[in-house]
Amino acid sequence: MKDYWQNYIDGAWVDGGAGRVDIINPGTGETLAQQALADEADIDRAVQAARRVHLSGVLTDMRPVERGRMVQAMGRYLLDNRDAVAELLTLEQGKPLWEAQKEIDGAARYFEYYGNQAETLEGRSIPLGAGYFDFTHYEPYGVSAQIIPWNFPLEMTSRSLSAGLATGNACVIKTPELTPLSQYIFCEAAEAVGFPAGAVNIMCGWGHQAGAALSGHPDINQVVFTGSVKTGIAIATAAAQNVVPCVLELGGKSAAIVHDDADLDAFERDIRFGIFTNAGQVCSAMSRVLVHESRHDEVIDRAVKIARSVSVGPGIERTEAGPTMGPMVSEAQRDRAAGMVADAEGQGATVATGGRKMNIPGAFLEPTVLSNVTPDMTIAQEEVFGPVLSVMPFRDEAQAIEIANGTQYGLVGGVFTRDLDRATRAARALRAGQIFVNEWFAGGVETPFGGYGRSGYGREKGREALLNYVQTKNVAIRTRA
Ligand code: NAD
């Protein structure tokens, strides 16, 4: 483990104008290493480097298949370094080692998918009658600014970087202050596959300083952000000053509707992965379960059983896939989640299991299940971003939909039933960008993902996402009659 990690601007590893920050291992509470912090001048240099690359035409003039091959090769580079990167990710972020390995696989998959898509973005020809030939084509925006959260730092960077490069943009990435170390792999990968200096710039910095400087920079052409609603609003406001489009992915309070005919044996797996993956720090986590009143007690019992079966401890010791959980990303996030559980109790919820900070070093919170939650409680309305499941009963289908739709969010939703009519009715009625039927997290890199309401706008993943990174140009040609 190196004890100091630099930023990467215009093809060079550099110190940061804002000094350094200690990176803490949330599994032990100890300092892992230091990371350079970019200031406004560093951000400006990175944006100018990216802009130079864009204006040079080196990315845009390339035949798309060649760009696509380079993007794919970046994914293979990640896989070639899977073990080292996964270990680093676990140490800085906390997740079990096997989850970190899965994250590398997921990260590489974005490069595979968008590398493949590079040559599929085609324009169309529009008939204008005799004497004209008209066609459209897609051009990259130019400089893509990408601001990354700490929960899945490698997958989130891969998601936007792969699509940004595949479409011919030069990218400037602001990594999260809590988990910046493993991002080094993207800089190495970009260099190894032959992207020119300045095409990929990756730096850490404070959100209010480097993040704000990047999202408000007059020479960026597009912004992609994943994180909190508050920061999303700040970024969209800054971008609006420069008339720059945004993609915002801002989290959720997503609900699974469990009907009386649901297969509860299968649903146990959804509880396990829906809320305890990555210690619940997942924007599309299954943080609410709405269950028909006839099965309510049974679901509580099963959720408590699952929560108690999860082995919690330092992620680095959790190498095998299974019911394991690491710490949360930081003590501050853990304390915030524990505080929300205590407030919920104060408002009348019952802690069926868990709810306490664990009495070991590190940022651990017990896997938690809450019952007697009502839809108006803060815990039922606001994102905890931790391993905390709220279970609520419903009387009938209409009430279930009303509760599910009754928050400011709308990222994903789920319905569990053997009745296809019920499932399709729910899929239509739920106000969310992605609906799961009988399996939470069903889908993949191929399926478009993004929110309704305060969960944000624009779509990541799938073909849709490519359109975030390009603009349409129409060419009308007057021909001889
Ligand atoms: P955040 O939204 O503040 O941070 C995410 C990223 O935005 C970081 O890289 C940060 O440096 C940057 N940032 C912060 N302020 C900025 C600004 N003014 N301008 C530009 N960039 C800025 O999230 P957080 O404080 O790390 O976590 C708080 C809460 O956000 C969590 O508890 C959770 O509810 C939510 N969150 C959601 C996701 C998600 O995937 N949807 C991810 C992380 C956090």
Automatic annotation (TrEMBL):
Its EC number is 1.2.1.3. Signal peptide: none annotated. The active site is at residue 249. One of its GO terms (molecular function) is aldehyde dehydrogenase (NAD+) activity. Pfam families: Aldedh (PF00171). PROSITE patterns: ALDEHYDE_DEHYDR_CYS (PS00070), ALDEHYDE_DEHYDR_GLU (PS00687). InterPro entries: Ald_DH/histidinol_DH, Ald_DH_C, Ald_DH_CS_CYS, Ald_DH_CS_GLU, Ald_DH_N, Aldehyde_DH_dom. Keywords: Oxidoreductase. The keyword Methyltransferase does not apply. Residues 13-475 form the Aldehyde dehydrogenase domain. Belongs to the aldehyde dehydrogenase family. This is Aldehyde dehydrogenase.
